[in-house]
Amino acid sequence: MATFLYRLGRGSYRLRWLVLAVWILIVGGVGAAAATLQQETDPEFRLPGTESQEAFDLLEERFPDQSADGATAQIVFASEDGGPLTDGDEAATIVEAVEVMRESPQVSNVTGPFDTDPEGDPIGMIAPEGQNIAVLQVTYAEPSMELDETTVDYLEDTVETARGAGLTVEIGGDVLQEIPIGGLTELIGIGVALVVLVVTFGALLAAGLPIVTAVLGVMLTTAGILAATSFMDVSEDTGTLATMIGLAVGIDYALFILSRYRNELAADGRVEDRAARADAMGRAVGTAGSAVFFAGLTVIVALLGLSVVNIPFLTEMAAAAAVTVLIAVFIAVTLLPALAGFTGKRVFTSRQRDRIAAGRHDEKPNGGRRWGGFVTRHPVLVGLVGIIGLGAIAVPAMDLELGMPDAGSSSEDNTARRAYDLVSEGFGAGFNGQLFIVGDLGGDADPIAAAQNVTDDLNSVDGIAVVGQAFPNEARDTVLVTVIPETAPADEATNDLVHQIRDVLAGSGDADWAVTGQTAINIDISDSLNDALVPYMLVVVGLATLILLLVFRSIMVPITATLGFVLSVFASLGALVAVFQWGWMGGLFGVEQPGPIMSMMPIIMIGLVFGLAMDYQIFLFTRVREAYVGGEASKQAIQDGYAHSSRVVVAAALIMISVFAAFIFSGEVFIAAMGFGLAAAVAFDAFVVRMAIIPAVMALLGRGGWWIPKWLDRILPNVDVEGEKLQRHLAETERADEPELVGATAK
Predict the structure, then answer these.
(1) Distance between CA atoms of 224 and 227, rounded to whole angstroms?
(2) Which of 386-390, 623-627, 632-636 is least confident?
(3) Are 336 and 618 spatial neighbours (Cβ–Cβ below 8 Å)?
(4) How far apart are CA 420 and CA 235, in angstroms?
(5) Do 196 and 657 meet the contact criterion of CB atoms below 8 Å apart?
């Protein structure tokens, strides 16, 4: 592996014009495909194999007039003085708003607060106590992401008119949901990365190379996703994770190879020599590039493992991110050497070149050596402090509550949150999470009898505030009834209620009953994620452990790496619970309403953090193993390895933390929680686990840390990540060239 990558890196450096031309053709081809093939992304969310999805599909098929997949809007009116809205100018304003919304483009159904059914019974929503809050319910014919701009403007103009008449008006539902627009967060991450890289390299040109290659990788993946929309359904959120991970690992991988290149070149001392620069790049790609290859492989395994959850949009996101990582690896071992070839000796500043020429330049970070020495001299102290500290932070994770976010967890600056609060105040929290009970009658069952039976069954269930009127569809083969829980959508009691309703309806023989609605879908998402968590961990950890075993040819290195990862994940979950669930220091992070942690957080954190943690493990310990294989004692190898690699690992971790932390102040609680959790996990894993606990444990194990059974050592292929074969190959090449050089000198 190392020898092949040496040739690839050296060749890419020397044939830089050819390599650049190939990459330009690739970028141009993918970009042209994106421009010509791009179609609309798929806004529909599906959860195959779940009761809620099957019921939703049935509802969409049998009740087409309900526009089950259409956008919804709840226009919530409240009197500013707390008086009733049933008469006077305020009532007239609401009636006018209802009539105006019935003329809205793309509208499917409108139910006003004062509407009644043909028998004169009220079907609108007006607060039973005080009648000071009313709701205008609107259903559109298209999903929110497919609504025309004029439709949204029409809604907002109607609301502004009602506000001008003296009413408090807020908009709930998903009608104002927008496709997240990236840019600011990415720019913040890139800006911080550039600062860190300038400090690390001390040269602006060298610092810019990882940024250029990382951005190019993300652009390629984004263009590929756009082109893919022509022949497959692609979720609109597919590129989100790819952008986040692509920037982070793209910068990191280029950073590690470029740092090794500068080390090799500085140690050689021939910065002005073009051939020496090519050889130095070959050695850098052969050694650090091997680490990049296997680090990328662990991240790809962790991402693709998310497919076991069987949630299509999550699988798409993970696959796109995995492709981005793969592209980042290829760019790091081919395009980066070519670009470094164009920079030539300017990869160092003139001052740095002068110091190298004078023999006074040392790229080895002495701080890393001193830290490695401290850890190896006091392994018990360092190990215990790290383990106990992270263990204490992990304690709140024992109280972890999972759920899906709703408008109630949004910022109070959000109109959807204010609408949610008004509905809760006027009607009860459960009105924000209606459940739909759908019954497929089949055969010759009587829909009237089925409707009465299901109503009776539901009235016997505790926790239901309102059981709506059951009614059949036009074909009279399906019955629909609306149920209002007593508790909020994200409340644990609502989760229990949905499962209780399903148990009760399972015994009904007159129809196949199922529960759906956004609340039920969210509950099924949480259940699917919880069920997939253990299999996912087994698959990902098992495969990644095999990769680490192959790379390090040691039993203890993969075991300690994995156990350290588990500790960092639990610590980050503990910090997440303390801030976002308990509300500790919530004001500092914009947490206005503490609540359950988003169900996707643990599995996403496990996938991403495991891949990134193994990155740091590989980058740090390939240098340690390189020193150990070179004849150093175990503790001395740790000091030498950390002297060479700790500085760039710290820089890489700071870049990663900055990218994730930028999401904390997004204004959306679940996005902020994800940013906080990932930033905390990287900080704990990089600075406490990889930089302290793991070297302390390995120092205590001594030679035993590198033990492997002889039979296993024989059957494992030697991938030569530390470059031992490469060094022998280079030494043999030099010896073979010596007679020619001697003969040439004699002549």
Answers:
(1) 5
(2) 623-627
(3) no
(4) 27
(5) no
Q: How far is CA 103 from CA 98, 140, 158, in A?
A: 9, 12, 11
Q: Do 94 and 114 form a contact (C-beta atoms < 8 A)?
A: yes
Residue 84: helix, strand or coil by DSSP? coil
CA angle (128 as vertex; 122, 134 as ends), nearest 5: 75
Angle formed at CA 542 by CA 541 and CA 545, multiple of 5 degrees: 80
Tokens at 388, concatenated: 């106990």
Specify the length of the chain in residues. Answer: 747
Task: Compute φ and ψ for 404, nearest 5 degrees.
Answer: -100, 145
Measured CA to CA, the distance from residue 513 to residue 505 in angstroms comes to: 6
Cα of 73 vs its chain's centroid, Å? 29
Domain boundaries, the chain: 72-173, 364-408+533-716, 409-523
Compute the distance between CA of residue 698 and CA of residue 379 in angstroms, rounded to an integer. Answer: 9
Q: Report whether CATH 3.30.70.1060 matches the domain 364-408+533-716.
A: no
User: Is residue 549 left, alpha or beta, with left meaning phi > 0 and alpha meaning psi from -120 to 50?
Assistant: alpha
**Common-topology check for domains 364-408+533-716 and 409-523:** no
| Distance between CA atoms of residues 133 and 129, nearest Å | 9
Strand partners, 169: 77
Range name among 308-312, 391-395, 503-507, 718-722 with the lowest pLDDT average: 718-722
Axis-axis angle for helices 274-304, 600-629 (nearest 10): 140
Question: For residue 103, how many other CB atoms are within 10 A of its CB?
Answer: 10
Q: What is the C-alpha to C-alpha distance for residues 582 and 400, in angstroms, rounded to an integer?
A: 10
Q: Which of these, 75, 73, 80, 93, lies nearest to 170 by C-alpha position?
A: 75
The Cα 92–Cα 165 span in angstroms is: 10
627-658 burial: b if 16+ Cβ within 10 Å, else e = bbbeebebbbbbbbbbbbbbbbbbbbbbbbbb
Instruction: Calculate the average pLDDT of the chain.
Output: 83
Per-residue pLDDT tens digits for 201-219: 877 888 888 889 988 988 8
Give the pTM: 0.79
Fold of 72-173: Alpha-Beta Plaits (3.30.70)
Per-residue pLDDT, 99:
94
Q: In this model, does residue 303 exceed pLDDT 50? A: yes
What is the separation of C-alpha 698 from the centre of its chain, rounded to a whole number of angstroms?
32
**pLDDT tens across 642-656, in order?**
888 888 888 888 888
728-to-276, 503, 720 alpha-carbon distances in Å: 18, 69, 11
d(CA 576, CA 582): 9
Q: Tell me the C-alpha distance between 403 and 401, whole Å.
A: 7
Q: How far is CA 704 from the centre of its chain?
A: 37
Maximum average pLDDT range among 258-272, 418-432, 670-684: 418-432
Identity at 732, one-letter amino acid code: E
Helices 634-661, 600-629: inter-axial angle, 10-degree rounding: 150
- pLDDT tens digits for range 229-270: 777 666 666 676 777 788 878 888 998 899 888 888 887 777
Contact 369, 222 (CB under 8 A): no
C-alpha to C-alpha distance for 176 and 557, rounded to whole angstroms = 50
Gap between the Cα atoms of 445 and 453, Å rounded: 12
Class for domain 409-523, per CATH? alpha beta
